Amino acid sequence: MRHLLTAVRRPLLRHRAILQTANYKPQKPQPPPSPPSPPKPPKKPVSFCLHGESWEDEFNWMSQLNDRWRCGTWTCTWSRRRSTPRLSCTTRSASSPSSKRRWPRLAAELSSPPLRWGPWRLASLHEEFISNKSPSAGFDFTSGKKIEQKLLDYNLEAERYGGYAYEELSEVSPDHHYLAYTMYDKDNDYFKLSVRDLNFGSLCSKPQADRVSSIAWAKDGQALLYIVTDDKKRPFRLYCSMLGSNDEDVLLLEEPQENVHLGIRHTKDFRYLTVNAFSTQSSKVFLINAADPLSGMTLVWECEANAHCTIEHHQEYLYLFTDAAAQGQTVDHHYLLRSPVASSCSPRNWENVFANDQELIIEDVDFCDSHMLLIVREGRKYRLYSICLPLSNTKVGVHLKEFNPQNLPLPDHVSQILPGPNYDFYSSIMRFAITSPVMPDAVVDYDLVNGKWIIVQQQNLLYERTRVLYGSASSMSSSQKSSMYTNFCGNNSGDDRPWNDLAEYYACEECDVPSYDGVLVPLTILYSRHRKKNGGSPGLLNGHGAYGEPLDKRWRNELKSLLDRGWVIAYADVRGGGGGGRKWHHDGRRTNKLNSVKDYISCAKFLIEREVVQDTKLAGWGYSAGGLLVASAINFCPDLFRAAVLKVPFLDPTHTLLMPILPLTPDDYEEFGYPGDIEDFRAIREYSPYDNIRKDALYPAILVTSSFNTRFGVWEAAKWVARVREYSVYDPSRPVLLNLTTDIVEENRYLQCKEAAMETAFLIKTVES
């Protein structure tokens, strides 16, 4: 009977539910919950004293890895409690609108374009099917299979190394018989050397070495030279191993001095190996005959410390590319020297290849058997020249124009030109990667004999942008889309080829900003031609300014969302970075480090005063040493910025340089200063972001991201965030967030996407609100 009673009651229940729905009155929306308060880590003051100055560090305990306090969890809490856009990268179905907008910005092809080199057995068997343009390298239309050979199986390597596979170095032997490579041993925190036989896929019994930092083949693949590091990760021993021999590896060189670091490389023709020994006192280069690596090494170059020295060989001449002092006088840029290999003079005589020209700066040099390639900069404009080899002895030492260089085509607004692998020394085709703020990176092959060129790889962003923003792609047929893709992949060549840049949609302007002392600082400004708001645009100012490295101004897909919302993206080439010569670098390091910070502040004020960016909508962005630059600028002018993103930043130079937990190199001390030197110490204390946080000041919203696998300790980010939260005025609309990861973000494409989404959402939320 119970089921009958249930059947009778059901219509009554439905009727009652209808009546309740009809009488329902919607409630007023509840106010959003109050934002969470930031966590407060415990204080454990430790006292320090140096050069008569005393100070305390209440968060020094964070550098003790066995005493971790989870101070980064507030990022997740804040993202959940705040209204959209959320600080998370959610997984969406392929049909969701957000997914459709975001997915085409990721390069669909993860492979680097193949490069032809040497006697590969499968290539010789399928010559007619091999393509240099397809990432798959070739396709056998008879068997229907790709023509490829797996040299290294990461799944097998992960089994060897406890489920984790990370490759640092890999070199194929000149005879293509062996592959030498190093894999990271996470249990011991070093890289381990292995050699694999490519004909059989098996591991060779030797060499097998721990703590390997560099490798180079010799004797046409019969010998492998490698350098190992000490407990402090200093490269200090050079060994030679004969493959197929049972003899012990031979120690060729050992540097007992703690400030000397070793490096090794082979010349492009595999005729010689060069060993660099650099320290805080000098830079030396030794030469080894690759045909007989045990015959000893010869000192061919010696100069002052901190000089860049690279040697190549071409037809019995050694070519040296360096920025060392010339005739006792410091130089501002690199220059090229040459000397006969058979020279018996001591010291060896070197002659200038080109006459000195202050208006024409050689940024880099590359060689093949028939040509020399020069990456040249005239002011801000880059050029790529090729010169026929061998050089005439009567022309050496004259102006570059006397060599009748061929000017290779380049797009507008080039920010950097990088030589490709170019393994095949005897090929006339040379590969370069070209970057620009308004163009996706292009990998280009230049044929130096006939002058033709071809884009072998470049992401198709033009098609994606037309489809999303202007809707024209919906009317395109599949054949038209295929044609567009074919053109973009570079299957055509000639001087009339488009460079597939985005200049039609995004403008790139360059200007010089006077700094506090009158020095002009280059500033590059990027914005959407259709979305920029005159005087009211939000802005993001990028900076780095360290190690003499040029600022990365390449097109970044993750910035497209900001540009299309009317943001201005600016790049400040402050002192300490590259692009302005050696003096530009030296004027922004050690005791001159504050010049970098003041240059950055001057560029920020320029953007606001010229109404390029609205005065309340400027954000800063810095990576690694660039994080120090931006954080220090915020300490000086916290009201100048509305937000900032600091990625794996260097924030506590005082304690890191004074008591390094992670190994530092001479370059680190030459860049940021020696705490033992009183002048350097005072400069460090003045520019250090951690030591100069303002009390009772309103700081901008800040997102700090770091990793337990970074050169700068993760505790630096945690300490700085904790002290900023402690000292500054708390404003829930200006959170100071810390996001920590245990993975290496730079090695994971999807973690990069997730982190970029978080940064973009953070900037939009904090600046546009």
From TrEMBL:
Domain Peptidase S9 prolyl oligopeptidase catalytic intervals: 557-725
UniProt key word S-adenosyl-L-methionine: no
Originating species: Sesamum radiatum
Organism classification: Eukaryota, Viridiplantae, Streptophyta, Embryophyta, Tracheophyta
Record domain Peptidase S9A N-terminal: where: 147-458
Function: Serine peptidase whose precise substrate specificity remains unclear. Does not cleave peptides after a arginine or lysine residue. Regulates trans-Golgi network morphology and sorting by regulating the membrane binding of the AP-1 complex. May play a role in the regulation of synaptic vesicle exocytosis.
Enzyme's top EC category: hydrolase
InterPro entries in the record: AB_hydrolase_fold (IPR029058), Pept_S9A_N (IPR023302), Peptidase_S9_cat (IPR001375), Peptidase_S9A (IPR002470), Serine_Peptidase_S9A (IPR051543)
Ranges annotated as biased composition (Pro residues): 28-40
GO terms assigned for molecular function: aminopeptidase activity; serine-type endopeptidase activity
EC code: 3.4.21.-
Similarity field: Belongs to the peptidase S9A family.
Record key words, sorted: Aminopeptidase, Hydrolase, Protease, Serine protease
Record's keyword annotation contains Manganese: no
GO BP annotations listed: proteolysis
Region (Disordered): 21-47
Name of this chain's protein: Prolyl endopeptidase
Domain of life: Eukaryota
